[in-house]
Amino acid sequence: MEAALDGERDEISPTASADPRSTLDDNDVRFGEPFRPADERISPAEMKFHPSSATLLNNLTANHLSRLMNSISDGCSIGQHLFSSFPILWIVDVSGQIILALEELVDTNHGTFVAARSRISRDNGRFERLGHPSLLADKQGRIGGEIVFDRRALTWEISNSSGRFGYSTLSASRTQAHLNAVRDVFYDFGIELSTLYLPDQNELSIQTALK
Fewer CB within a 10 Å sphere, N or C end of the chain? Predict the structure, then answer.
């Protein structure tokens, strides 16, 4: 995302999305306890490769992201169409930091970026998609989802749309309060988002069809 704005990748700032005063117990309450999906639910590509668009949310990257999002909210039609179709993935890691990336399609041999994957495109077998687990070195996260532009409401929307880190399951409970806590982190960085909480994966297909 930074490359599209400034032509070069940002250095990670020490002032990141995790509150330095937070403890792991605090993060358990705010974002849910960390867990790792079963290995069979993580593809070999997601085990091996990391998205080239991956970005740690901090003061510098939030400023760039805010400028991009504001320009789209203010009427950039091309951006509105793009980001209503191509989601920004987000996930909270064990330390409470937020990592962002496009959902990338990559070359299966080298993990080289080929294209971003839209919300409705199907994998054709030629390339591998890098979903939420690929953003995490140890594959452990707290809660994840997507950020998209809602063209009807003309607002940016954060959801818990992640089959492996977003929905409540027998092994992990992800609530509206956890999603709201993530929204509040973005708000503290000057990024205002509406929320869409999806209690289960079936709700995702309904909401996608309505957009």
Answer: C
